[in-house]
Amino acid sequence: MSVVMITNRLLEKLEPNAKPYFLRDGSLKGFGIKVNPTGAIKFVAEIWHEGKSTRKTLGEYPVTTLHDAKVEALSYISQVKSGRFESVTKKEVHLGALFDEYVKHGRLKARTVKDYKEAVSFYLHDWLKKPVDSINKQMVEQRFYKIRDKGISGGKPTYSQATKTMRILSALMNFALADELIESNPVQVLKLKRVDRSTRK
């Protein structure tokens, strides 16, 4: 994590990378920003407390201003140091809400968004109200094979749709991973088990 002077001018010029990256503020210890591949810039506060790192997301630029983020960071750091802050809980985000956020910030073409919506609403419709962090590797495997070999929601078995659905789900999980909603991408289980997901017609 690089140390810089975080200013409004810097925030306006930041460019995303293929992977998320952090910048620490040189003027306020414990304050920093996280730049996601989508271009979203998150303000964060991080402090060591009782032998472990404790982090909180303070808001997203420019909805949250730099000034307000620093004020909240100071309050958070003070609470942790004084022992008045007990724990950080992850915000429960459902897959449907994550998808909406993804297409909003994903810089996707209209046709791609339409294609993604059709696939998700049909093949993952019963997961849309599930918390993102409740979707595990076993669920992913079972859903992939069900779409591929049996069909879902009255539809026919389809190899190509199983592959496409998992590709979309993986992108969503990487998006959630970037925002620290989950600790790992459960779709990776298909790669680790070397499941053939090559596109077929």
What layout of secondary structure does this protein have?
Elements: E1 2-4, H1 8-13, E2 21-25, E3 31-35, E4 41-49, E5 52-61, H2 66-82, H3 95-105, H4 110-123, H5 137-150, H6 159-178, H7 188-192
Parallel strand pairs: 1-2
Antiparallel strand pairs: 2-3, 3-4, 4-5
The whole-angstrom Rg is 20 Å
Spatial arrangement of strands, main beta sheet: 1-2-3-4-5
Q: Give the biggest beta sheet.
A: 5 strands, mixed
- Share in helix: 40-55%
DSSP strand count: 5
Strand content: 15-25%
Low-confidence stretches: none
- Globally, the shape reads elongated
Distance between the termini: 44 Å
Count of helices? 7
Please write the string of helix (H) and strand (E) elements.
EHEEEEHHHHHH
Q: Roughly what is the average pLDDT, rounded to an integer?
A: 87
Structural class by SSE content: alpha+beta
Keywords:
single chain, 201 residues, alpha+beta, 5-stranded mixed sheet, 43% helix, 16% strand
